[in-house]
Structure formats: C-alpha cells, structure tokens
Amino acid sequence: MTDITHPVNESVNDSVKEPVAYQPSIISFANDLANLCSLAGLLSAVLAIFFAIVGNFPAAMIGLVWAVFFDWSDGNIARRMKDRTDKQRLFGGQLDSLIDIVSFGVGPAVVLLSYGDFSPWFLPGAFVIVAAGVLRLSYFNVYGLVDKATFQGLAIDNNGIFLVLFFVLNGFISASVFTSLLYVLILALAALNVSSIRTPKLSGGAWYYGIVTYTLVSTSFYGWQLLK
C-alpha cells in the first residue's frame, strides 16, 4: 500500500501570529502631569485666539502669556518625574511640539489678522509666521539643539513673549503706526525662527522665575486694561 503523506494545513499555521505588543490608549497619556500642563497651555492658546478674533486684545495677551508659562512649566515637571517611560517622553515631546505651533504660530497669525480687520493684505504675514513655525519645529524635532544649551534660530515660544511685550504699546501710539509695526514684528520673528543664528536655551531656576514674574506682571497689566 502506498504511504500517502498528508500536506500541512497552512491555513491553521497562518492563523497563529506573534503576540501584539501592548499599546496604551490615546487618552491614557492625559493621565500625566507634564502632559496636563501642556494641555493647559493649549487651552490658554485657544482662549487667546478666541479673544483675538473678537477683538479683545488685552484678554488675548493674557491667554498668550499663560501659554508661554505652561510651555516653560511642562518641561520642568517632566524632568522631575522619574517614573516616566520612554514612550511617555516621546509622546510628551510630540504633544509639546504640536501645541507650540498652535500657541506661537497660529496664535500670532490670528492676532495679526484680527488687528488688521482680516484684510487680505495681512494674509501673507499670517502665512509666513505659521510656515516659519512649522519649519522650525520640524527641524528641531529632527536635529534638536546645536549643543546642550544652544538653539539654531529663535525658539518659537519667544514669539509669544515678544508679542505680549509689544502690545503694551497698543493705545499709546496711533493705530496705523501700531499696525505697521505689528506686521514688521511678525515678519521679523518668522525670519528669526528659521535663521541660522544661535540663541541660548533659557533654562534653569533664575530664568523660570523670570518667566513666572513676566506672566504675573503681564496678567496684571492687561487685566487692569480690561477693568478700565
């Protein structure tokens, strides 16, 4: 009798797969103090954009300066969290980068457009500041710092710092002059964001307390304007 060898059942073998690595849920990353701080900065930026659209620029500047504060704070919190996994660190870095473009790219663009009564003449400036922010953050995500304490180009959070400081002049000079200077400032910040100049990374306790003071003073100044 001829011995017949039965073929291997390939469909059964194909159904046996390697176990899939565990992937946490998206929302689980919100259960992270540093990421919550980043999201608080996003909320501040969204409020700044809203108030800019409706023409309440003192309130917009308060939102913007708090976006800067939370952007500085999330890194400090993350560095103090010793139990964060590599995935949490990577996620936090991506989250911070995406929020930065909303806060310090889209935010200044909307401020410029709103102050210019949404005239088409202001669209080029709005595009340039957002495009510069996208290019800068993409470059930084690939190359990082030049060294441990130096950026290439102006860090994007400075857009918020300078814009909040500049709006102190609003009401003290004519609207036409202020509008022109605002346009120039936006273009200058965009150019600095993508420039090859090297700027220091402002880190450490002294600089952090400085931004805390700047936030409180700015909030008081613009809050006083709201109450007038």
Describe the SSE topology.
Blueprint: H1 10-14, H2 33-53, H3 57-80, H4 86-115, H5 123-143, E1 150-152, H6 157-166, H7 175-193, E2 198-200, H8 205-227
Antiparallel strand pairs: 1-2
Helix pairs in contact: 2-3, 2-4, 3-4, 3-6, 3-8, 4-5, 4-6, 4-7, 5-7, 6-7
**Mean of all residue-level pLDDT scores:** 89
β content, as a range?
A: under 5%
For the largest beta-sheet, the strand count, sense and barrel status come to: 2 strands, antiparallel
The secondary structure category is: mainly alpha
Poorly predicted runs are 1-8
Spatial arrangement of strands, main beta sheet: 1-2
Q: Label the overall shape.
A: globular
Helix content: 55-70%
Tally of separate helices: 8
Oligomeric state of the chains? single chain
Report how far apart the termini are: 106 Å
In N-to-C order, the SSE pattern is HHHHHEHHEH
Whole-angstrom Rg: 24 Å
Number of strands: 2
Commentary on this structure:
With 228 residues, this protein is an all-alpha fold. The protein has helices at 10-14, 33-53, 57-80, 86-115, 123-143, 157-166, 175-193, 205-227, and strands at residues 150-152, 198-200. The chain has a two-stranded antiparallel sheet with strand order 1-2. The chain is globular, with a radius of gyration of 24 Å.
